[in-house]
Each structure stands twice: as C-alpha cells, then as structure tokens.
Design goal:
Layout (H helix, E strand, L loop, with lengths): L1 E4 L3 H8 L3 E2 L5 H6 L3 E2 L2 E2 L8 E14 H7 L19 E4 L5 H14 L1 H14 E5 L2 H10 L4 E5 H11 L4 E4 L7 E9 L5 H12 L1 H8 L16 E2 L28 H6 L1 H13 L2 H14 L2 H7 L9 H7 L3 H27 L1
C-alpha cells in the first residue's frame, strides 16, 4: 500500500512516526534524480523512505498577447504585481475558498515579511480587477485575456498553456521568493504486496513514468484522454523535444524561500479572515482608494492606504484566540470598519 500526498510534509511526519517502509531504488534512477530542487529535498537520501514524484510550484501566469498589446513587461516576482502599470489587469482569488490561493498569500508574507508583504498584497489588490471564488477561474480569466497576469499554481498554469498555446501564455516562478515542493510517495509498513509497491515506485521514477506527467494527451508517451500537467522530478524529461522551448524548468530556479509550515498552519484562518476584512469584502473601496493615490500621488494618502489595524507582534495573540467565535467576529468587524473608513479617507485626502 502506498501513500501519495501533495508536498513532502506528510511523509516527513510519517517517517518521524516510523510508519514508512524504506526502499532504495536502482542506481540508474538515483543518478537521474537530483537530491534537491531549489534547496528542497527531492527524496529521503538517508533511509530512502519516500520519493518525490512530481514538483509543485506557485507562481505567476501571464498572457503574452495582452502584455504585448498593453506594452507591459512580463512580471518577474510578486512585487511586480503591485506596479501601478498593472492597474485593473491583475487576476486574483479569495483564499477563503482556495487552498492554493491562500498558499500564495502566505508565501508572499514569508518571502517579504509582515510589513512589506502586506504592502505588496494591498497594492496588488488595488490592481486586481476582481476576486474570483476559485483558483481555476483566475487561471481561465488570464487565458481568455480578461486579465493579463494572475497568481497561479503550476498545474492550472500548465493546463491553460496547453489550451491556449505556449506562444500565447507563460508561467514564471519568482526566484528566491516562492516554494518548490515535491509531491511524494512512500510505502506504508506492513504493505501486503511489497514487491508490487516497489515496482510501482520504480515505474513512477522511470523516464517513461515521468514523461506521462508532462506529455500532452494523445501524444506518444502521454495520457490517452486527459493531460496531467505536472512538473517532472527528473531533469532529463525537460530535454524532450516537446518541452525544451515551451515548458518552464523548475531546475533553472536558483532558490526558494525556507517556508515555515508551522507558522503558516497556525495563522491559516487568521490570514484568511484578514484578507477578507481588509481586502476582499471592501475591494470596491480599496480599488477606488488605490486609483486616487495613483492619480493624485499624495504622500499622506499613500501612507494612509498602507496602514494596518494589526501589528505583526499581535499575530500569536490573535491565532491563539481565533477559535472563540465572539472574539473572531468582533475583530473581523473591527478590521472591516477600519478598512472602509481608511479607504474613504484616502479618497478624500487625494482630492485636497
């Protein structure tokens, strides 16, 4: 019996609990499998209890045709989406309804820190046309040209590149500002069909097995009905003629952030509710205020726009009490009222 999960975190925990059966694959496979990608281990190189099968990354999907038409550059990092040049052309979604979108806001917070992270999120939200309920909708809106750029997980980005063509769509992982994680597999101890389980891992890590994840449906070596649109864990697959010029290679990324899973887990609901109260549920007011600062450029108004009702030092206090519904609702309402008043005052200040 196998356990296959997104990310390597579950397998690290299973190994810690001594629930995984070690299995060392052949030397041929190990030679084709780098120990790490962007600083994150691809497999357990000590006990060989788990292996990454595909890579997952969070980045920016962009529409090449729209950017060319608008004369805008291809974004290189999260801060690019806060550039006023992208006003109304950023696609975004609600992290309260999408785990992948939540991950990207958390990545921004960890990559830049609390203060600068919120500065980027607020300005990026000012550039956002609207907040979709799902990450897949955000990706489709980018592909259709409704927006030019958007936050996007790799699988949705690759799916839209397949639909619209690599000549029209592109995807970038911000260097040293994102997370690259292997989606891993391992054999549970006590597996009844141990040899079959080992052979399955051998196949998944073979060139043929890895090609299946990236090759398009109907093409030689690919799925018959549905493309899987995932990043291979093996660098040699990216040298395939069908991919060399069209698919982003995660191994070209020089580095990723040291993602703090514990911090992210503790403030998950808190961050979602802060995004709701301070950004999404008052987005019309936020965008009007952002537009006012862009046209008037009042320094006082800009400072006011980026004010926060919560200091980073209070995070722990909030997440420790966030399960109390009275406490939670009180502060959500307080932050929403603060934000609506703040954005209204920014508009008034910009008119002076």
């Amino acid at each position: 019996r196998h356990v296959f999960r997104r990310g390597d975190k579950p397998h690290l925990r299973l190994k810690e609990l001594d629930l995984l059966e070690p299995y060392k694959v052949s030397r041929e496979i190990l030679n084709a499998l780098p120990r790490a990608c962007a600083g994150v281990p691809n497999y357990d190189d000590r006990d060989f209890s788990w292996y990454g099968i595909v890579l997952s990354g969070f980045g920016i999907l962009y529409n090449k045709k729209v950017l060319d038409y608008l004369g805008l550059p291809v974004p290189s990092d999260w801060a690019s989406l806060a550039d006023p040049a992208y006003y109304t052309w950023v696609g975004n979604g609600d992290p309260r309804h999408s785990g992948s979108l939540h991950m990207m806001y958390e990545i921004i917070m960890q990559a830049y820190g609390w203060r600068k992270g919120w500065d980027i999120i607020l300005a990026m939200s000012g550039n956002t046309k609207n907040f979709s309920a799902s990450a897949s909708s955000v990706a489709r809106n980018t592909s259709s040209g409704e927006v030019a750029v958007s936050l996007c997980i790799d699988s949705y980005a690759l799916a839209q590149i397949e639909v619209s063509g690599a000549e029209n769509m592109g995807f970038v992982l911000p260097e040293n500002l994102t997370v690259i994680n292997p989606d891993a597999i391992g054999i549970l101890k006590g597996a009844e069909n141990l040899n079959v389980a080992r052979h399955f891992i051998d196949y998944l890590l073979s060139y043929e097995g890895q090609l299946l994840w990236m090759q398009k449906k109907g093409k030689k070596g690919g799925p018959k009905e549905y493309s899987l649109n995932r990043f291979s864990i093996r660098p040699d697959v990216y040298d395939h003629p069908d991919f060399k010029a069209t698919i982003f290679n995660p191994y070209t990324l020089k580095g990723a952030i040291d993602y703090n899973f514990d911090l992210a887990s503790k403030r998950w609901n808190l961050l979602n509710d802060m995004m709701g109260a301070m950004v999404i549920d008052c987005h019309r007011s936020l965008r009007r205020a952002w537009k006012s600062t862009l046209s008037n450029k009042s320094r006082a108004a800009v400072r006011r726009f980026f004010e926060l009702p919560v200091d980073s030092g209070l995070q722990k206090f909030f997440w420790e009490n966030w399960q109390d519904p009275v406490f939670r609702n009180h502060h959500i309402n307080q932050w929403l009222n603060f934000s609506i008043e703040k954005y209204g005052s920014v508009v008034r200040m910009s008119r002076i």
